[in-house]
Specification:
By secondary structure, the chain is of the alpha/beta class. The chain is built from 20 helices and 12 strands. A 10-stranded mixed beta sheet has the order 1-4-3-2-5-9-7-10-8-12, sandwiched between helices. Strands 6-11 form a two-stranded antiparallel ribbon. β2, α7 (148-159) and β3 form a beta-alpha-beta unit.
Length: 525
């Protein structure tokens, strides 16, 4: 008896001890959270709260430190995995400060003139080498802002993709910059076109769609705004906030770009092929076109309702709706609850900042590529989206659902539209379980001041693709049909806001009214 009691007493002690260690680790992990979260090498721990994870956590923290120490090497490693002939896309040419007038930055009048000239000319570089755009040419639309470093790597990844020479790359810019333009013009592996969003903040610094000094401050109260008689006093968004130019630009640009490509360019007059939507901080696998064609063929044969194909996957999709307010409430929680809440918060934030932390399970790549057919959801299936004119025409017929919906996100606006198609099913997406498009750009977005090293992320993706090289170019697809979770099927009730200003609605609607424009050949004397 006493021995048994002693044993169980010991067990309690041990369990208590372990629990204390666990608590301590939890605490140090969460109190150091701010620092650690800024650290790009953090590895997500999915199930904190069980004893088994302590060792894992420790191991991962050690691994983190090592990776940081080696951060220096990674830029060399990245370069080592890029073929020599593509280094030119990564080489930074220092700006010429030799005071020549031709090198001075353009003023706004000049930028607007250049933009108009580019858009009128609709020049397709390398058309002479790779032939004209056909009705089934895959068009790769890339939305570009200012993140040149990422764009360089995207170009390097595109350069290595098989069949890239049969595509048309359309770079859509909302920021005019000679360095970016020069980089794009050096692309020699396929046809390239540059289009310029003409209503940018850059070219409208003191007027709508930029920030008009007479616009209402974001946080002004309605009565206050009326008194101020500011421009948009009558039109706060559904959350009571006034317009912020920089948040509206991305949706406008996305919409303008899609309109431009499908409806306005001369070279797409008879185009019926696929349009791939990428962003400047994406990175493609070398077989992405191969997989895309497989997906298209499979969809044509056995999934006619798959109107969208998706090449990227967010492997970890959590559903957290924590808000600032919820965080404040934590003060009233018990100690344990606080620890847990802090960890959840940390995990949630890491989810925001570390979706680049690619842990692609080996079985996601294979000789048979797995795809999933599921209801399309904006925030899950917005990376490497692909569709054709058939869906676009449907979108155009419901354009006001996009333009008037109070949400500054283009993908949520599209979801709203998708949910309001009379007599039609929800859009289905066929998505690639082993991603062919990666997001390499989280780092710079959230970690401006930290030591976050973009090369680290790029290096991870490179290595992942290298180690799975023998599994790329699958011969077949196997599709699973999934009804999707609650999130996939949730009906949007109210938008995320940021799109309450009628001027935004009008500008958005105006973009659809522009008809097809012939190429204007401009001769320089
Ligand atoms: C990192 O690189 C810089 C310059 O390339 C060098 O001066 C420094 O010593 C390196 N640090 C480490 C830890 O290797
Ligand atoms: C800078 O200007 C000089 C003289 O105008 C020229 O020789 C040189 O090639 C320029 N460098 C770059 C990077 O454009
Ligand atoms: C740049 O300026 C130098 C003298 O300041 C001149 O010799 C040179 O030709 C100029 N280059 C260009 C490209 O205008
Ligand atoms: C912009 O530059 C052009 C010449 O390059 C000049 O005529 C014009 O006055 C300048 N505009 C402004 C606003 O500085
Ligand atoms: C594409 O163009 C070819 C001729 O250029 C034509 O035969 C074919 O029917 C067209 N396909 C579609 C889908 O329009
Ligand atoms: C566009 O894709 C749909 C499937 O989403 C397909 O049914 C249709 O035939 C395609 N349209 C053209 C013109 O190829
Ligand atoms: C939309 O187009 C109309 C007619 O061209 C024009 O009067 C109006 O200013 C435009 N609105 C915006 C916001 O660009």
């Amino acid at each position: 008896m006493p021995r048994i009691r002693y044993a169980s007493f010991l067990r309690v002690i041990v369990i208590l001890g372990l629990f204390c260690i666990w608590l301590q680790i939890m605490l140090s992990a969460s109190s150091g959270g701010l620092e650690r979260d800024a650290d790009p090498t953090n590895i997500e721990v999915e199930t904190l709260g069980t004893l088994e994870t302590i060792e894992e956590l420790k191991r991962e923290l050690v691994a983190d430190e090592e990776e940081l120490m080696n951060a220096n090497e990674t830029s060399e490693q990245v370069l080592a995995l890029v073929p020599q002939e593509l280094h030119k896309y990564l080489t930074v040419h220092p700006r010429n400060n030799s005071a020549n007038s031709t090198d001075l930055p353009k003023n706004i009048t000049e930028i607007r003139r250049s933009i108009k000239r580019y858009n009128d000319a609709q020049t397709i570089y390398n058309e002479d080498i790779f032939g004209p755009v056909q009705n089934d040419t895959i068009i790769i639309a890339i939305q570009v802002h200012t993140r040149l470093t990422y764009l360089r790597h995207l170009i390097v990844s595109l350069a290595q993709a098989r069949d890239i020479e049969r595509t048309l790359l359309v770079f859509s810019h909302d920021y005019y910059d000679e360095e970016i333009n020069n980089l794009v013009k050096t692309i020699d592996f396929t046809k390239v076109m540059q289009i310029f969003y003409p209503y940018s903040i850059q070219t409208h610094p003191n007027e709508f769609p930029g920030v008009d000094p007479k616009d209402c401050p974001r946080d002004a109260k309605f009565e206050q705004a009326i008194k101020l008689k500011c421009n948009n006093a009558l039109h706060p968004d559904s959350h009571g906030h006034y317009r912020e130019a920089k948040y509206t630009q991305t949706k406008h640009h996305w919409w303008w770009k899609a309109n431009r490509i499908f409806n306005q360019l001369q070279c797409t007059t008879t185009h019926t092929g696929m349009v791939v939507f990428l962003e400047e901080d994406h990175y493609v696998a070398e077989d992405f076109l191969h997989v895309l064609n497989l997906m298209r063929a499979t969809a044509d044969k056995s999934c006619p309702q798959c109107e969208i194909l998706c090449l990227g996957t967010y492997l970890k999709t959590y559903q957290y709706h924590a808000t600032g307010d919820k965080r404040k409430k934590q003060l009233t929680l018990s100690y344990i609850q606080q620890v847990r809440a802090a960890n959840e918060e940390r995990r949630r934030r890491k989810m925001d900042t570390s979706s680049w932390n690619y842990q692609v399970y080996p079985n996601l790549y294979g000789y048979t590529q797995k795809v999933e057919i599921t209801p399309w959801h904006s925030s899950i299936h917005n990376m490497g989206m692909v569709f054709n004119r058939t869906l676009w025409n449907n979108i155009m017929s419901l354009q006001d659902q996009f333009c008037a919906y109070d949400d500054y996100n283009w993908d949520y606006s599209l979801l709203h539209l998708a949910q309001n198609r009379q007599g039609r099913e929800k859009m289905k997406v066929m998505l690639c379980k082993g991603p062919r498009v990666f997001h390499i750009g989280e780092c710079g977005l959230h970690h401006k001041k930290s030591n976050c090293n973009a090369n680290l992320v790029i290096s991870k993706v490179q290595k992942l693709l290298q180690t799975t090289k023998h599994l790329l170019y699958p011969k077949r697809l196997t599709a699973t049909i999934s009804p999707g979770g609650a999130k996939h099927n949730k009906r949007l009730v109210k938008g995320n806001g940021g799109w309450g200003d009628v001027r935004d609605h009008e500008l958005c609607a105006n973009m659809t009214k522009v008809g097809r424009q012939q190429r204007k050949y401009i001769y320089y004397s």
